[in-house]
Design brief:
heterodimer; A: Butyryl-CoA Dehydrogenase, subunit A, domain 2; Butyryl-CoA Dehydrogenase, subunit A, domain 3; 3 domains; 4-stranded mixed β-sheet; 4-stranded antiparallel β-sheet; B: 310 residues; alpha+beta; two-stranded antiparallel ribbon; 8 strands; globular
């Protein structure tokens, strides 16, 4: 066992820290004040080109879920919305990396290797009638000659409006349930693919969240990921979640750590006059959060490490995802308690962190879904170590 | 390099301890609870090398072994390993060999409850610093849990040695061992409850198929898993603050998981027909050892307040 961050990743983390302090956090605050993400032609995105922001789910190099979680935590510490907005394949990367043929990986991920301009990709699973119940997606795909024709709606799609391509999950037959799921890469500009709206949210204004519509949208047959076998799309989706859930968990740890730091700094600067009893209570709350955040980080690291070792990690990924976001929300809430009335004023960071963090307990499967995933593994498959 | 793989030592001693626990401890846990650990089991543990954990293994592998043994029976584990733990801590402090440990606040007490299955000396560690090796007269007493380890009321009859060292590292060694045992008990209760809810049917369905039950199983696994990683990290880091953080979470996880296990078994969980009621009692005693949760929490709070975390 070793818990030392590898030197190459540590160097990236330090570089990300500098970018975070000077660019991600100020720009994230600016986006929050404006209530909208930075436009895709904002100079910052060109400045951030080639910046190591993810797990290397591109056309070259070795993808690493562990690298992704370490960097995701650091980026989210400075601003989770801006972290999601950094150019790159983002959540679109893992499904292409995991399900795509070598040719598909070259075509779709290769554009991120040495980009001459900022580019994004996206991941589209959720629909108005299918959130946690992924099996209930109703976006249809039908084969017509050398194409697949897609009809349906997707929502809550990060970077959906600026993405060069979107991985879209659809069903070839709802009656087949999960077996009917397939995944397609739909490129921007494909006729029939349009952005319906950009969502306004409680937090994470710096992250663009779009609703997408597909109407008689014809995509080449070559854009089908993972083949046309029964259940391929479902398997690919689950494999993707096993990589992305630890990333979301790590982001939660990052936000939680930011809230912890803000609150601790405030308390140490301002609480010298408190009664011993009140100070003891405050210190106890800080220690509790600190322990939980540290445990959350280890859960995310372990789940990602297992993914990199090609070992089953569904339970660990769900565990990390279930555990970290509520802890981070607790950290933000602690911050508001500590700052008192300052805590809910918008000129203090803690107010924004509280709004930003909540969604992490919802995306990539709610905390409830993670518990169902875990229980199925623990009870039905005897994953409990005995 | 972040790496959660087990070292060869870790894997081998884990397998050894798991097998020993399955053969010698779990089947006999009620017997050991009533009458103490038999001489044959002590001998078997010694022959297997399990009494040499503090001399032959690094802290990560050692914690894995303690966890596996406590998965079988935490009371017997402490009966077998307690003297070795006390001896290792005595050596850490440069003190003569001891049979048992007691962590205290304030002045060293002359009368104390202690787990002393076999032995006549208790190493008393003061949280504020300083230690005393006391020769004691022991009177066996009934305890809430961990009875196999031999609960006793110890009366100091002589001071054999004492020192003024800072005991933080020594207390951390004790906390780490108890924290590992807590994880073993929590995992045992989780595994037992997970198997039970798969078999037991209510309202025409398996207990496991009711979401309230499924969520409880998941939360138990999260608590044990999260705390278990903190224990591994504390073993890896080797610092007193890390051991304090790990102890608080591991003790909390053991208390939570064992109580939930009793709850999931319903009335059956309350019966001695099943081991979960024993594990709930054992967890409660474990969480009070090595100075207990509040003392560890105090050290954890001090670290969180004084040291930035990155």
């Amino acid at each position: 066992m070793d818990l030392t961050i590898p030197e190459p990743i540590e160097r990236m983390r330090k570089a990300l820290r500098a970018l975070g302090e000077h660019r991600l956090r100020p720009l994230g605050l600016e986006a929050d004040r404006r209530g909208a993400a930075l436009p895709s032609d904002h100079p910052f995105f060109r400045e951030a080109l080639g910046f190591p922001s993810g797990g290397g789910f591109t056309g070259q190099g070795k993808a690493s879920a562990l690298r992704a979680v370490v960097l995701a935590e650091e980026a989210a510490y400075w601003d989770r919305g801006m972290a999601t907005s950094l150019p790159g394949p983002s959540l679109g990367g893992p499904p292409v990396a995991l399900m795509g043929s070598p040719e598909q990986r070259r075509r779709f991920l290769g554009i991120f290797d040495k980009p001459s301009e900022p580019r994004w990709a996206a991941f589209a699973m959720t629909e108005p009638g299918a959130g946690s119940d992924v099996a209930a997606i109703r976006t249809r795909a039908r084969r017509e000659g050398d194409h697949w024709v897609i009809d349906g709606e997707k929502m809550f799609i990060s970077n959906g409006a600026r993405a060069s391509w979107v991985v879209v999950w659809a069903t070839i037959d709802p009656a087949q349930g999960r077996a009917g799921h397939r995944a397609f890469v739909v490129e921007r500009g494909t006729p029939g693919f349009r952005v319906a709206r950009i969502d306004k949210k409680m937090g994470l204004a710096a992250s663009e969240t779009a609703a997408l519509v597909f109407e008689d949208c014809r995509v080449p047959a070559d854009n089908l990921l993972g083949g046309n076998g029964a259940g391929q799309g479902w398997k690919g989706a689950m494999a993707t979640f096993n990589v992305t859930r630890p990333i979301v968990a790590a982001m939660a740890v990052g936000i939680g750590r930011a809230a912890y730091d803000e609150a601790r700094r405030f308390a140490r600067d301002n609480f010298s006059g408190l009664s011993a009893h009140r100070l003891a209570r405050t210190r106890e709350r800080f220690a509790t959060i600190r322990r939980k955040l540290e445990a959350g980080r280890l859960l995310a690291w372990k789940a990602a490490w297992l993914a990199d070792q090609k070992q089953p990690n569904a339970t660990e990924a769900a565990m990390a995802k279930a555990y970290c976001p509520p802890v981070a929300l607790e950290a933000a809430s602690l911050g508001i308690d500590i700052l008192g009335e300052c805590g809910f004023a918008s000129d203090f960071l803690i107010e924004k962190l509280f709004r930003d963090v909540k969604v992490l307990d919802i995306v990539e499967g709610t905390g409830q879904i993670q518990r169902l995933v875990m229980a199925r593994q623990l009870v039905n498959h005897g994953v409990v170590h005995d | 390099m972040i790496d959660f793989a087990e070292s060869d030592d870790h894997r081998l001693v884990g397998e050894l301890a798991r097998g020993f626990a399955a053969r010698q401890l779990r089947p006999a846990q009620r017997v050991h609870e009533a009458a103490g650990v038999s001489a044959a089991v002590y001998a078997a543990a010694r022959d297997a090398g399990l009494c040499d954990l503090w001399t032959s293994l690094g802290p990560v592998a050692r914690c894995a072994a303690i966890e596996e043994l406590a998965f079988g029976d935490a009371g017997a584990t402490l009966a077998i390993l307690g003297p070795a733990l006390a001896g290792a801590i005595a050596q850490q402090l440069g003190a003569p060999r001891a049979d048992a440990l007691h962590v205290h606040e304030g002045p060293a007490p002359d009368v104390m409850p202690c787990l002393v299955a076999r032995g006549e000396t208790v190493l008393q560690l003061a949280h504020a610093g300083g230690w005393r090796l006391a020769c004691v007269r022991s009177e066996m007493i009934a305890t809430l849990g961990l009875s196999a380890a031999g609960g006793a009321r110890c009366v100091v009859v002589d001071t054999l040695a004492q020192g003024g060292h800072d005991c933080a590292a020594a207390i951390a060694t004790a906390r780490l061992a108890i924290a590992a045992a807590c994880i073993g008990v929590a995992r045992a209760a989780l595994a037992y409850a997970a198997a039970y809810v798969q078999e037991r049917k209510t309202f025409g369905a398996r207990l496991a198929d009711h979401q309230a039950v499924a969520f409880a199983i998941a939360d138990m696994a999260i608590a044990a898993g999260a705390a278990g990683l903190l224990v591994q990290k504390a073993a890896h880091d080797g610092t007193p603050p890390a051991a304090a953080h790990a102890f608080v979470e591991a003790a909390g996880a053991a208390l939570f998981v064992t109580e939930r296990a009793v709850q999931l078994l319903g009335g059956h969980g309350y019966l001695k027909d099943h081991p979960v009621e024993k594990w709930m009692r054992d967890a409660r005693v474990l969480a009070g050892l090595a100075g207990g949760r509040d003392l560890a929490a105090e050290d954890s709070e001090h670290d969180a307040w004084e040291q930035p975390w990155t």
